[in-house]
Amino acid sequence: MNGNFQDIVAIKELLKKYPKGLSITEISSALHLHRNTSAKYLDMLKLKGDIDRKEIGAAKNYSLVRRMPVSTLLHFCLHPAIVLDGRSEVVMVNAEALSLLACPLDVIYGAGVKDIPLALFKDPEVGTRCHDAVQGVRSRAEVQTFVGGKRLHLTVHYLPVVFDTGRDGCALVLVDETACRQAAEERDLCRKRYLALIADQTEFVAHIRPDMTLSSVNEALCAHLGRGRDQLAGFRFLSLFSPDDREGIRRGISSLSPAAPAFTTDVRTVGQDGSVCWERWTFRGIFGEDGTLLECHALGRDITEMKNDKDRLKRYHENLEALIRERTQEMQQANMALVTVIREKEELEQELLFTQFAFDNASDSIILFDEAGRVYKANKTAGELLGYTAEEFQGISVIEINPSISKAQWDRMQAGASPGVKERTRSTHKRKDGRIIEVEVSRTFVAFGERMYFCSIAREVLPER
């Protein structure tokens, strides 16, 4: 018995080396087995569905194939399945298929696949795929059809199978994707409804990532801050508030959990005109199945008038000295907050000015390209090296500057972009006057916000004297 098992394994290993198949004579010769013994083992493997047999005239060619036994398929398959014999006639149907197709067994059983009275099987491609599956070629197709007036989205798998008698066949496994498609459509509809809901809201709406950066904002918040969506994408949310309130908001968001998903707080801000304002923000966590905070939905509104009304009502019951002291203290706090905000803005502006100065006056040519390959930004050195003005750079592409890069090569570079990976090489640049110069290039991809840029730092290689 051990010898028989080893011979069977040897036959399968041999057929792995010859995908096109071998005859009995070639197998028995290669393994030094008697022809009748080889034929017996091949018949056993054929019945198990491990190999396929094709008759070419009087010769029989055997090859390794992955066929699933019909009994195994019907036992473990949870989806609707229809089994066809070598003549593409229905010989087996499970209950799930009858239920899905809303068709009685006597209509389907024994019929050719093209004769089944359903629109799904009228496509000529179905017959072709069934024939290929009988020959051992597995395939899959996504189709839309109507059954009983109901629109179905199906993924049809054409599987090569083998019957217990050793004969070949194919099975059509129908995976109903209708519910999944409908769920995706409902999700998209809910997203559109949500966007339509927040579009005209006067309250401020923001979505905050776990790292406290903004992922999306509505128009009301953009107008309130005097900034566009692109400017606020990736912006740190806490920087919108005074230093005294930042830590409280950070602690509140960190404390959110499925058991306590929301908290509300009032914060003091400085308006664009320098006035002190009050805002009420409600933060609600959005959690994953494991309780991890995925995002935070923040809803804010200006409550300055309400605060002022409460303050006025309180002041009416206090004497003039207390009122003056309170007003003085508020003004001092407001001035301190305003000075802090102004100082931070000045520091940021100085850093931006210095960065821009260093960028423009760098000794090397620096060019940033966007994902489409167009020049996003170039420093003065790049303009001097290539002969372009800042305005002319806006219509230039990477292919025009570096003629050694083709459109297909640029697409491959974008597809394999890895931020932070630097590359030094020699290349060529084309000046505005058409002259080609040789340059040393240091290039890398950089990610900022949700965008990817290609940074090229080049220096002309002067000829040796």
TrEMBL record:
Domain PAS: 358-399
Coiled coil spans: 303-351
InterPro entries found in the cross-reference section: Biofilm_reg_signaling (IPR052155), PAS (IPR000014), PAS-assoc_C (IPR000700), PAS-like_dom_sf (IPR035965), PAS_fold (IPR013767), PAS_fold_3 (IPR013655)
PAC domain span: 263-315
GO BP, sorted A to Z: regulation of DNA-templated transcription
Keywords in alphabetical order: Coiled coil
Pfam annotation, one family: PAS
UniProt cross-references to NCBIfam families, sorted A to Z: sensory_box
Protein name: PAS domain S-box protein
Species of origin: Methanofollis tationis
